[in-house]
Amino acid sequence: MNERPSESHSKSKDFAAAETLDRGALNRALLARQMLLGRQRMSALEAIERLCGLQAQAPMAPYYALWARLERFEPAELESLLLGREAVRIALMRATLHLVSTRDALSLRPLLQPVQDRGLAGAFGKRLAGLDLDAIAALGREWTAERPLSFAELGARLAERWPDRDPEALAIAVRARVPLAQTPPRGLWGRSGQALHVPLEAWTELAPQEESCTNEALVMRYLSAFGPASVKDMQAWSGLTKLQEAVRRLGPKLVRFRSEQGTELFDLPDAPRPDANTVSPPRYLGEFDQMLLAYADRSRILSEARKKRVFTANGIVRPVFLLDGIVAGKWEIRRERSDALLVVEPFVTLSADDREALADEGARLLSFAAQGCNHDIQFASGSVED
């Protein structure tokens, strides 16, 4: 009697027959899900949740992310969400600062606790060795609930209890163990403010959800915003490990592809996967745009050679622009009194059409970012690739 093929053998056959998606197809799938093939009509809150959060290491970065993706977005809309506590700035994926809806913050933060713990152990483990981290977290929670504190203030107070320890490490231990939200005016458009922290449940006046997000749900949220993608991509974005098990449990809820390099990719069956020749308009993206931090393999949007010109040695991700869906240069706005100059630094030789399209989109960027100023655009003559 013939034996039934093993599950692993069946999967191997399925993968061998999987459709190959080239870089162009992966790029257009990403742009479609990131709302960059055409600006969308939806609220800022809907967009933040659809994208599973926005990178927020730079206070103004979420505003540029939404401007690039939404029709008629105004900064006041996001300010209202922050002031109304419907959206919060909090350390989540990869233990880095994100702007997410309050609903997502309460759901995602418990799931991502191992990411916070691993980050704390890796960066501050030696400086915290032998300490009762639960006691430190309890004090930190109590003090930040009384009034929002900066990490400098929190660390100094903790160092009074543990005078032989590094105040910075003590404060970061609280952030890792206690979900801390940053309070306005930090993160409000055009305003500066010290980063002050308060426990998430105290800020939102909502208790953590009885059931946090699961690994499976997070994988599906990720694929909706960034797929198709490999397990390594999912793990690089979230900071979680062992997501292969979650993918396996999802089983028929996912479809499988392969990259040109032979990497297994997963996706949602009904997610958009436009033709690789779909027109992609030029787009200016702000600092730390989440697309550049969402993959182990960024080649669908950013080459390794260009990455060195975008990612700095001290961890900054510069504002970039896209041509035909690919990172093709950097930009910055320089202000002097009532003048605002957009400086565009291409990595490639620009055609006359590309230059005109970038100028048109750049004028819209200046109208958004520098209202009330005199506007000008300058194309830098820096080095470009052959």
How would you characterize this protein structure?
- It is a single chain.
- Helix content is 43%, strand content 16%.
- It is α+β, with helices and mostly antiparallel strands and 386 residues long.
- It has a domain at 302-379.
- The strands form 3 sheets. A 5-stranded antiparallel sheet has the order 2-4-3-5-6. Strands 9-10-11-12-13 form a 5-stranded mixed sheet, with helices on both faces. A 3-stranded mixed sheet has the order 1-7-8.
- Helix 7 (113-128) runs antiparallel to helix 10 (167-177) and helix 9 (151-161) crosses helix 10 (167-177).
- The relative contact order is 0.13.
- Residues 1-10 have low confidence and may be disordered.
Average pLDDT over all residues = 93
Distance between the termini: 63 Å
| Secondary structure category | alpha+beta
Uncertain segments are: 1-10
What is the C-alpha radius of gyration, as a whole number of Å? 22 Å
Strand content: 15-25%
Helix and strand succession?
A: HEHHEHHEEHHHHHEEHHHHEEEHEEEHE
Shape: globular
Read across the widest sheet, the strand sequence of neighbours is: 2-4-3-5-6
Protein name: Winged helix DNA-binding domain-containing protein
GO molecular function, one term: DNA binding
Keywords: DNA-binding
